[in-house]
């Protein structure tokens, strides 16, 4: 790493040279922010690569967004930079709305357990390989097919 | 051979004042495993954000948590300001630091008191909470509110600190510094506290990192991580202060981290008052931010807080996501609890500082005359002191 390139650009460069053929979008939007979009099947490889190469062991959270045609998942990964959790690499992936399944990353990042359960509860995305994908937030008697954070779900009048 | 018992603790439990359920698996007195169940106070705020305008979002974000209301609004405003691609004026950034640090002082003092309460040391609790009133008074002086401060807006802050206020704040800080030093002395020397907290709830350094713990929980396990350093938002890089860590990895270490951070916060506020730049405290922005997405991180008293916002150019956010520090600390707490006794549960669970809130302003109604009046806190305090002084004779 030369002095002239920042750590953010170095991470982006390393991602591009190792995963160039699967990455559909890669940008450094400012200090400490990297955004990268990959297909769902490559996501685990990217996280494993960040963990082995940059010692990124901290997942801040998983954001699930209903994009109407698909679901977008953003894995916010903190990568050591100037300090241990300085740079936020936001790994994005899109999964089809009619078959919302995603390989679990709990074995790579144990801290992701509750975040995957949260997304499963509120958006109905199934994380395959999760050790315990039970209800976390919604009540036990909540209807099986209602997911409050989907855009077609409207709060009922009380 | 002992059989395994299952005991649910919560959602209503006298020692844990939040709607939380912990299902314990016990071998005699010893905790073998624990599973948390959340959602008893889930209010659907993320969905609520999508149904409200960007400005209304500030007020909803403020009400996520009573105690760390300011970090939430700071984080939300920082994220939305990134969408506008504006930086708030320097003076507003310094005012944000001051109000966030006041929030941290009040939250940490509250926690130190709660620790005393959880281990049955009520005197400590009463004294710490008495002195915590002083920081609430400072907050009220600046913002007009004791708890929900309503300080931040998108593009700056609402209230300014005037020169006469500065003197009162500095006097308050001197008092708080002296008292906090004393409470730290108590933590260091009081055998009751040490017996109940040392080597209790141990979380090793590698577990703390792998289970993604945040805040004082993480720093009590000797990991140098703090969003104020990791991501110097709001001009935190211009202020010199120490990142407090302790290597003991137990409840005691977390207590010492919070005591030291309170002292650091007092220094930060003093430095901000010394260096306070002049100029405007807000910039005017259009009501609707341009399309885009942004992430902001803020160090709340309990740890790192994350807000993600996505705009599609309409008047309401497309998506707002928050990650609060307590959720991040739950996997670590489950690990901490294993192998300890039932009697240690309150101290260990309290050591991550799960948050609860209390605030009220009193309205008095005289039943005989039907007359109602509102007292300010100083009037109420004067009344209560007079009441007890008269009855003591």
Any key phrases for this structure?
heterodimer, A: 158 residues, alpha/beta, Beta Polymerase, domain 2, five-stranded mixed sheet, two-stranded parallel sheet, 3 helices, 23% helix, B: 393 residues, alpha+beta, Cytochrome-c3 Hydrogenase, chain B, three-stranded antiparallel sheet, globular
Describe the structure in your own words.
Chain A is 23% helix and 29% strand. The radius of gyration of chain A is 17 Å and the shape is elongated. The model of chain A has no long low-confidence stretch (mean pLDDT 90). Chain A has 158 residues and is an alpha/beta fold. Chain A has a single domain, classed as Beta Polymerase, domain 2 (2-Layer Sandwich), CATH 3.30.460. Chain B has 393 residues and is an alpha+beta fold. Chain B has a single domain, classed as Cytochrome-c3 Hydrogenase, chain B, CATH 1.10.645.10. Chain B contains 14 helices and ten strands. In chain B, the strands form four sheets. In chain B, strands 1-2-3 form a three-stranded antiparallel sheet. In chain B, strands 6-7-8 form a three-stranded antiparallel sheet. A two-stranded antiparallel sheet of chain B has the order 4-5. In chain B, α4 runs antiparallel to α5, α4 packs antiparallel against α13 and α5 packs antiparallel against α6. The interface between A and B is large, with 37 and 35 residues.
CATH architecture name of chain A: 2-Layer Sandwich
Q: Based on CA inertia axes, which overall geometry of chain B fits?
A: globular
List the strand order in the largest sheet of chain A.
Answer: 1-2-5-4-3
Overall radius of gyration of chain A: 17 Å
Strand content of chain B: 5-15%
* Largest sheet strand order of chain B: 1-2-3
Short characterization:
The complex is a heterodimer of chains A (158) and B (393). Helices cover 23% and strands 29% of the residues of chain A. With 158 residues, chain A is α/β, with parallel strands linked by helices.
């Amino acid at each position: 790493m030369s002095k002239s390139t920042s750590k953010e650009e170095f991470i982006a460069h390393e991602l591009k040279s190792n995963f160039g053929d699967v990455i559909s979008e890669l940008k450094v939007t400012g200090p400490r922010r990297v955004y990268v979009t990959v297909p769902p099947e490559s996501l685990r490889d990217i996280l494993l690569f960040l963990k082995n190469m940059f010692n990124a062991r901290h997942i801040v959270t998983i954001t699930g967004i209903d994009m109407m045609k698909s679901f977008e998942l953003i894995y916010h990964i903190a990568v050591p930079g100037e300090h241990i959790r300085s740079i936020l690499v936001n790994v994005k992936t899109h999964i089809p709305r009619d078959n919302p399944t995603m390989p679990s990353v709990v074995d790579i990042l144990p801290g992701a357990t509750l975040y995957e359960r949260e997304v499963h509860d509120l958006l109905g995305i199934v994380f395959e390989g999760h050790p315990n994908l039970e209800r976390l937030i919604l009540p036990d008697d909540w209807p099986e097919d209602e997911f409050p954070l989907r855009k077609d779900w409207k709060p009922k009048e009380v | 051979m002992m059989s395994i018992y299952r005991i649910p603790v919560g959602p209503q439990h006298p020692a844990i004042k939040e709607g939380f359920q912990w299902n314990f698996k016990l071998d005699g007195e010893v905790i073998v495993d624990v599973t948390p169940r959340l959602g008893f106070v889930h209010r659907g705020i993320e969905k609520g954000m999508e149904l409200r305008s960007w400005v209304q979002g500030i007020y909803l974000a403020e009400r996520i948590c009573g105690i760390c209301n300011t970090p939430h609004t700071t984080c939300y405003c920082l994220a939305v300001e990134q969408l506008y691609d504006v930086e708030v004026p320097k003076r507003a950034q310094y005012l944000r630091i001051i109000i966030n640090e006041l929030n941290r002082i009040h939250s940490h003092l509250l926690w130190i008191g709660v620790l005393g309460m959880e281990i049955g040391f009520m005197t400590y609790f009463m004294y710490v909470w008495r002195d915590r009133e002083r920081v609430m008074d400072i907050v009220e002086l600046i913002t007009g509110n004791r708890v929900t401060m309503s300080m931040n807006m998108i593009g700056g802050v609402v209230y300014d600190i005037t020169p006469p206020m500065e003197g009162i704040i500095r006097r308050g800080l001197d008092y708080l510094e002296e008292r906090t030093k004393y409470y730290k002395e108590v933590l260091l020397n009081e055998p009751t506290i040490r017996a109940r907290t040392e080597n209790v709830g141990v979380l090793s350094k590698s577990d703390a990192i792998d289970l993604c713990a945040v805040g004082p929980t993480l720093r009590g396990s000797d990991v140098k991580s703090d969003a104020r350093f990791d991501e110097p938002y709001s001009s935190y890089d211009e202020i010199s202060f120490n990142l407090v860590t302790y290597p003991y990895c137990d409840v005691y270490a977390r207590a010492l981290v919070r005591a030291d951070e309170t002292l650091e916060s007092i220094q930060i506020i003093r430095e901000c008052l010394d260096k306070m730049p002049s100029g405007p405290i807000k910039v005017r922005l259009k009501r609707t931010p341009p399309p885009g997405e942004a992430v902001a991180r803020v160090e709340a008293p309990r740890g790192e807080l994350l807000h993600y916002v996505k705009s599609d150019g309409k008047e309401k956010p497309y998506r707002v996501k928050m990650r609060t520090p307590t959720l991040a600390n739950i996997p670590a707490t489950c690990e901490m609890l294993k192998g300890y006794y039932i009697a240690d549960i309150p101290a260990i669970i309290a050591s991550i500082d799960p948050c609860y809130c209390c605030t009220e302003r009193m309205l008095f109604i005289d039943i005989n005359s039907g007359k109602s009046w509102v007292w300010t806190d100083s009037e109420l305090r004067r009344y209560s002191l007079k009441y007890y002084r008269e009855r003591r004779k």
